[in-house]
Fold each of these.
Amino acid sequence: MADRPSEFGHVPVLLERCVELLAPALTRHHPDGSGAVLVDATLGAGGHTERFLTELPGLRVIGLDRDSGALDIARDRLAAFGDRITLVHTRYDGITDALAESGYAAIESVDAILFDLGVSSMQLDRAERGFAYAQDAPLDMRMDSESSLTAADILNTYDEAALASILHRYGEERFARRIAKHIIRQRARAPFATTAELVELLYQAIPAPARRTGGHPAKRTFQALRIAVNDELDSLRDAIPAALDALAVGGRVAVMAYQSLEDRIVKRAFADAVASRTPVDLPMELPGRGPRFRALTRGAERADAAEIERNPRSNPVRLRAVQRVEHESESQRQGTGKGDA
Ligand SMILES: C[S@@+](CC[C@H](N)C(=O)[O-])C[C@H]1O[C@@H](n2cnc3c(N)ncnc32)[C@H](O)[C@@H]1O
């Protein structure tokens, strides 16, 4: 089975469903995918991309990842596909430049785009990267080891209000202010260096009754720091509209999110994309002001029990997808059309 663990360490989530959702856009020109381009915006170990390239022997893929280690793994795995795959080391909000580098326009040029958000199993399993609270390691958490800010930098230099805000906004941690206070007190004695030091502090800062509910006490703080270190939400907020713009008419985008903050961004961007631009008080759709996209999923789709059993990392997934149905008129693009006011 394609979604069983492989030598590459990451099991692709909702693989069949992603193929089912995106293949119609990739086979519009030719049944074997010739003439079509898929952007895998989160290439990771290349599991989803390998399946698309295998199933559609004419397809080309542009694979993006901010983690050069992931790109190395994908390069090895996908070597047999030769120049049908182009790898680009970038954040996904750099999709417009990545397309230009690969010879494609930023507007209406690609047939499908896949986002499989978050960290990969390889990133979580490599203890030295500091993503996992269960393993002692340096407080790093950078997805791109060439970027400069680490989790230790945040813990050792941000003021109390900024720390509390990160924990509250990105971790939805109800003891954010209390934890921030403990961090300031602790780092005055010695700066934070390891994940174990942070986990120990969280056991002290979070009251015992609260520790017994709501999962591991470190879960929310680690999520918050990871989001802050990698600027994950801003990156996604910019990437989704750029991806929607890049889709040709008939093109499709699918996004898998694993935590509610990211899923909310996707949900809002898609709700906006499928909304009519005709003023609500008009009885009929104005030409050029109808929805530019249509929803392909009703709400968010989840993994079924069998997949969760085989691959527990699929448990939190929320999949949403839309299809471009209309060109964006010049007045819409420039925001000058009627109804924009
Ligand atoms: C869940 S994994 C993708 C796994 C892949 N679909 C597979 O089947 O092997 C997510 C990947 O997205 C990358 N990533 C996360 N945030 C990113 C961003 N803002 N820009 C580019 N890549 C990002 C991570 O480095 C990671 O390799």
Note: Strands lie at 37-40, 60-65, 85-89, 110-116, 247-257, 293-295, 318-324.
Amino acid sequence: MYEGAVQNLIDELGRLPGVGPKSAQRIAFHLLAAETADVKRLVHALVEVKERVRFCAVCGNVAEESECRICRDPRRDTAVICVVEESKDVVAIERTREFRGRYHVLGGAISPIEGIGPDDLRIKDLMTRLSDGQITELILATDPNLEGEATATYLARLVKPLGMKVTRLASGLPVGGDLEYADEVTLGRAFEGRRSLEF
Ligand SMILES: [Zn+2]
């Protein structure tokens, strides 16, 4: 245990995902030794992200205006929606340059163990988006793990009455993993080889 402010910083850093006690201590002492101007820049970035960034009113992706960059882009195909769990998945798919439609960010996946049900995700918003009949294909790009598969199955059954084409990314993605960890080529191929889901 350190005194006051240093321990305080270590405790706060230790609450971040992936930062264990040792890393928290290392970062704290790095900041302690850093130039004041550098630390102020970091503080500014932290405050700014909370003040400026919000979630897109259409798709739920991170945005700096009421709609995100992708939803505002008139060149994007409005007839195809790709459903993902998190904004980081949007970034991963954008990197492949395979997809020119728009997204829908659920904010997670169905997980009974963690107590996350359909009502905790942006599924109602998705259904509203689909209700105007303009969407021809819904791509389910949830993670290739248990929760992601369960969520894709749930959604496929839910939207079946709407009669649109529902596809799932092709196998070849690392099973049990996160979409964001797949390399661009693998993810791009999975996109190209997506298959229709029938229920
Ligand atoms: Zn958006």
Note: The chain is about 45% helix and 10% strand.
Amino acid sequence: MSEVLVVIGVGGMGEAIARRLGAGRTVVLADFDVPALDRVAEALRGDGFAVHTEQVDVSSRESVQALARAAAARGPVTQVAHTAGLSPVQAPLEAVIAVDLVGVALVLDEFAEVIAPGGAGVVIASMAGTQASDSLPAEVEHDLATTPTDELRALPAIAGLDHAGHAYAIAKRAAQLRVRTASLAWGRRSARITSLSPGVISTPMGQAELAGDSGASMRAAVEASGTGRLGTSADIAAAAAFLLGPEATFITGTDLLVDGGVIAAVRAGAATLGG
Ligand SMILES: NC(=O)c1ccc[n+]([C@@H]2O[C@H](COP(=O)([O-])OP(=O)(O)OC[C@H]3O[C@@H](n4cnc5c(N)ncnc54)[C@H](O)[C@@H]3O)[C@@H](O)[C@H]2O)c1
């Protein structure tokens, strides 16, 4: 049986990761959006990849559990890339919490049950989460890291949110923090889990962000950064390949910031991010 690569979310980053890592593996692609799923699967099959599709709603435990079991039935699940997400310019507050916060927590829970020994997972967080870490109180971070998934929405820091942009930043910080905690359960299976925090990446989501209220400050921050450019899906796929691959077997429970230097520019006082 071939090893199984699971890619959850077939947007710009998901497709790039599937192409980068999928050769010689059974690729299980999962997304909520069936037409997008079918389109990406057809394109990959046309290029010689062995692809299966599963519809999933990452905000539902039953759905994520069914995906994890379906993937494991196809062979040893050695690589999981969780890229599904909603940006606050695409979706309202409730949907951002459901997908970006609860969805990540469910994927960490359910894939911990099926990941193969020696396997690895990567969760796509965001530099928005890295930035949020500068202002969130330690006790809120502790709660985000350790509260059982089914109780997350009731945390005061979540229940009191009234802005999708704040929800996105907190959810992405929670993704980084929950990966830390999840590294223990994944480690008990001899598997690793990391997060990867992109900066502004030129996918449909990134373009929507650049066209939104924060677009001007994001462009200015990119221009002030060490690289001075937008990221590409290929930049993210290369970093994900490293984190999921044989060069990273001592790396787990931590985040890799892949932002072209934007956060460094912000922290150096050369740029600001936000509305
Ligand atoms: N593009 C950027 O600039 C950027 C920057 C930082 C972080 N990110 C994060 O990177 C990840 C990938 O982003 P992308 O640019 O590829 O986005 P994208 O919008 O191209 O793809 C996201 C995919 O997630 C899927 N999805 C949404 N809700 C879902 C649900 N409930 N269940 C299953 N699938 C669902 C969508 O259908 C879509 O195919 C996201 O988590 C995003 O928050 C993106």
Note: The chain has a mean pLDDT of 97.
